[in-house]
Design brief:
The structure holds two protein chains of two kinds. Chain A is mainly α. Chain A contains twelve helices and no strands. The longest helix of chain A has 38 residues. Chain A starts with a helix and ends in a 6-residue tail after the last helix. In chain B, helix 1 packs across helix 2 and helix 2 packs across helix 11. The chains are: A mainly alpha, B mainly alpha.
């Protein structure tokens, strides 16, 4: 097991290295002077000189990259050009809402989507299957802001159950914190639930065609038990894998949702940084969110043996 | 002894619309809906009731009425006309991204499938690109260039490429060792010809399905970019930018956000329905499972 963990950890190194190269190259991919790009149209030559100096743009590009990478590995994501604060500190201040909403969505979506997918596969071809699948494709196609604003209208403006926008940190107490994350989480959940429902159904249909399912049914086992014990357990690995892969669109969805609900998370931090051409923040946010994505997928990979005892490391 | 001769079954050619409607109702709905949206966009100059960019401070935030079908926005521009014109951008971006991502993915996937060294390098790069959430990468890419339709198409297409590459590569890997490829090789078919004549046709069916899903997600991504204020310059009406301008007045004038969102959602839904239908038709193994 330990050997396998080590091997998987090592395998993430080339992925993260590629991410680092892409994130670093963002500034250098455009034709022209990166300092002019950051400074914008109104920058004076003095501004440009200051930006060049702060980012070390005078040095050869390989040297810049290695220096930057060395800093990142030590947890230093650079300094904001706008308010001179360390990027890692700015991200630490903003990571809570993004993480909490992400985790809420993942939990909620798994609880809703897996039963829906199982029912759809169980009753494949029936009206209930068609209903679930039609709702899934609709949920999958709806723009996040449409869902978000409809929820705001119904539950915040009309029913006044939840605040319209904003965020209260966890430290403010659950009574203040909780109402602020319900609607944003629900908004992004639709897409994720649709994705997982479709995947659960497809995998379950595959499994339900196996011989051992027929055997279990033939010996008179109750359908619910066949579904839960024999089928779902064998479908678990692909479903859990999809939970990890879907995280990519989940994180993207949260970025948009933070704007809909005016939540000061990492997405807002990034968008505000772009408007001010504060590129170290942009680079930092992308690096951290990508690392999070890779890390969670690594954990999911390692969890396979929990679901399938045939997988031994 | 008489032999009953069955009447020949109807061939695909003579299948009627009712056959298609009964067998693939959602696919037909998707086609019809998308056709309507395309027509709306094509004939935008004839259908729009107002100039989509004319600012009219006297007519700010008018609710929907006969004169202003979908109401007016905070600058007094007609939302209906902007939605009709905005469809052009969304469809252009969707088709542009799908074409670009498929072409790039096809080229990279073919090379990766046939050359082990290139495969190792290219797939590591693809893994890295896939580790960055797609919208974030697109946001970062438009942030470093001057946004225009072209740059937005490129920025949205790049994060979509790795999935196409994986698809093409898996097809290439599965047929590379097939006897007919070997036969073609032995009979002297050279490399570009081998790829184009014998490998490419096998990738077309799954690629068409993938392209429709890429197109749908690209239309959403473009709207998200514009909504965040990072996309195509706001002087050009797009669904995302109309919604973005309604963002701050959503409680006063929900129509500015609602109508473009509905058009956007419907378009994406129609394309996804077409994609699902195509997959059912082209890949019978997967039919009715996913």
């Amino acid at each position: 097991m330990l050997g396998y963990i080590l091997k998987r950890l090592l395998a993430t190194i080339p992925v993260m290295a590629t991410v680092a190269v892409i994130v670093f190259m963002l500034l250098h991919l455009t034709p022209g002077d990166p300092a002019a790009l950051i400074g914008g149209d109104l920058a004076t030559p003095e501004d440009l000189r200051r930006i060049r100096e702060q980012l070390g743009l005078e040095r050869p590009i390989a040297e810049q990259f290695l220096g930057w990478l060395w800093q990142v590995l030590q947890g230093d994501l650079g300094t904001s050009l706008f308010n001179q604060m360390p990027v890692s500190q700015l991200i630490a201040q903003r990571i809570e809402p993004t993480l909490i909403i992400g985790l809420t969505i993942m939990t909620f979506a798994v609880i809703v989507a897996i039963p829906l997918g199982v029912i759809a596969a169980w009753k494949a071809g029936s009206w209930i299957d068609q209903l679930i699948m039609t709702l899934a494709v609709i949920a999958f196609s709806m723009p996040i802001f449409l869902i978000g604003y409809l929820l705001i209208f119904k539950f915040s403006v009309e029913l006044k159950w939840f605040p319209v926008r904003g965020y209260q940190p966890m430290s403010a107490g659950p009574a203040k914190f909780f109402p602020h994350i319900v609607l944003p989480s629900l908004t992004v959940s639709f897409i994720y639930i649709a994705l997982l429902t479709r995947m659960t159904r497809a995998t379950m249909l595959d499994v339900l065609n196996q011989d051992y399912i027929r055997t279990a049914r033939a010996k008179g086992m109750a359908t619910t038990r066949v579904m839960a014990v024999h089928a779902l357990k064998n479908a678990a690995v692909p479903i859990v894998t999809m939970v990890g892969i879907g995280l990519s669109s989940l994180l993207g969805g949260i970025v948009v949702t933070e704007t809909v609900f005016a939540i000061p998370g990492m997405g807002r931090l990034m968008i505000d940084a772009i408007v001010r051409r504060d590129f170290p923040i942009l680079q930092g946010v992308i690096l951290v969110l990508s690392a999070l994505y890779v890390l969670i997928n690594l954990l999911i990979d390692l969890s396979y043996s929990l679901f399938d005892p045939r997988i031994r490391y | 002894m008489s032999i009953a001769i069955e009447a020949p079954r109807k061939s695909a050619r003579t299948r009627t619309l009712t056959y298609w409607l009964r067998r693939y109702p959602l696919f037909i709905l998707g086609c019809a809906g998308l056709a309507a949206i395309i027509l709306l966009a094509l004939f935008a100059p004839l259908i729009a009731t107002h100039d989509p960019v004319a600012i009219n401070p006297a007519a700010r935030l008018r609710p929907p009425s006969d004169a202003w079908l979908f109401g007016s926005d905070p600058f007094g521009r007609d939302v209906f006309s902007r939605v009709v014109w905005g469809g052009r951008i969304s469809l252009t971006v969707g088709i542009g991204v799908a074409t670009l991502a498929v072409c790039l993915g096809l080229a990279i996937g073919m090379v990766a499938g046939f050359n082990r060294v290139a495969d190792a390098i290219l797939m590591r790069i693809m893994d890295g690109v896939m580790a960055i959430p797609g919208i974030l990468l697109a946001i970062a890419l438009v942030a470093i260039v001057r946004p225009s339709v072209t740059t937005v198409v490129i920025a949205i297409a790049i994060p979509e490429v790795p999935r196409v590459v994986r698809l093409v590569r898996s097809v290439v890997l599965s047929i590379r060792e097939q006897p007919y490829i070997e036969a073609a090789r032995l009979s002297g078919v050279r490399f570009p010809g081998l790829l184009i004549k014998h490998v490419l046709p096998n990738t077309i069916a799954p690629l068409i399905v993938q392209a429709s899903f890429v197109c749908a997600s690209a239309i959403l991504s473009e709207a998200y970019l514009s909504f965040l204020g990072l996309g195509i310059p706001p002087t050009t009406p797009t669904w995302g930018s109309v919604i973005s301008e309604g963002r701050n007045v959503v409680q006063l004038a929900f129509w500015v956000v609602l109508y473009p969102s509905l058009f956007l959602g419907a378009t994406v839904l129609f394309i996804n329905l077409i994609g699902d239908g195509l997959r059912d038709m082209l890949d019978p193994r997967l039919a009715r499972t996913l």
